Amino acid sequence: MTRVALVTGGMGGLGEAICIKLSALGYRVVTTYSPSNTKAEEWLQSMQNMGYGFKGFQCDVSDFDSCGACIDEVTKAVGPVDVLVNNAGITRDMTFRKMGKADWDAVLRTNLDSVFNMTKHVIEGMIERRWGRVINVSSVNGQKGAFGQTNYSAAKAGVHGFTKALALETARASVTVNTISPGYIGTKMVTSIPQEILDSKILPQIPLGRLGKPEEIAGLVAYLASEEAAFVTGANISINGGQHMY
Ligand code: CAA
């Protein structure tokens, strides 16, 4: 049976690597892109040229109704979602004293409300079919906090609270819900941090002495989506080069 995997925010950064990995493993892969993404068709075409037949659907993950409409479209066009990877996220880094309400709201809506908004529309189907995987992408900074990220750290910590509670509720239907907490990975989100902050404050905190690779995160997602991971639920798996251990 070919399972359907939906990756939010799959057209860049971690999401793209996750789409590629799941596709290579035989999943039918669907990704969402935000209404502000003007390069979606271009991305889909470039992936097509590389041999990946991804389907893309526009979706504002911060909006409940947009997520509902997106899942309806995906279900009709591709089939019911078996694996949901809640990956879409943004940063609006600044010290708390500079942070406005709009900066708080944007990050909480996109990074935390989105997890509710997407999961709500797929979970009943997973429970009925008695198989499902919800994989929530959190962050090392949700575990330990980060200078300049009160909004992001709060949202990402909230994601794992959601994971633990939902994992309890869906376990009997063999639907697993897990969090992964990547550290600093070599994507635009990280490489756009000012170089002097990266060099002086961040890299020295990573015992492995380098940024992670998107493919390393994708490998972990693939494991959690697999049959072998059926006994893993409610977990928060760190993948951060040793930056934070607990
Ligand atoms: N730890 C301790 N002190 C820090 C610091 C840090 N990580 N970062 C900045 N500071 C210090 C600065 O050295 C400066 O000190 P002085 O006044 O003594 O010189 C002071 O804080 C204020 O710094 P700035 O003037 O740079 O303040 P700013 O408001 O202009 O910028 C900032 C603050 C935007 C948060 C900037 O420091 C920054 O971009 N930091 C990186 C934040 C970060 O790690 N984001 C993660 C993005 S990647 C991601 O989120 C993915 C993931 O999941 C891991």
Automatic annotation (TrEMBL):
Q: Name one GO cellular component term.
A: cytoplasm
Q: Which SUPFAM superfamilies match?
A: NAD(P)-binding Rossmann-fold domains
Keyword hit for Oxidoreductase:
yes
Biological process GO terms, please? monocarboxylic acid metabolic process; poly-hydroxybutyrate biosynthetic process
Q: Which UniProt keywords are given for this protein, alphabetically ordered?
A: Oxidoreductase
GO MF annotation list:
acetoacetyl-CoA reductase activity
Domain Ketoreductase span(s) in chain numbering: 3-188
| Alphabetical list of InterPro entries matching this protein | Acetoacetyl-CoA_reductase, KR_dom, NAD(P)-bd_dom_sf, Sc_DH/Rdtase_CS, SDR, SDR_fam
Report if keyword Oxidoreductase is assigned: yes
Pfam families linked: adh_short (PF00106)
Family per similarity comment:
Belongs to the short-chain dehydrogenases/reductases (SDR) family.
This protein is called what? Answer: Beta-ketoacyl-ACP reductase
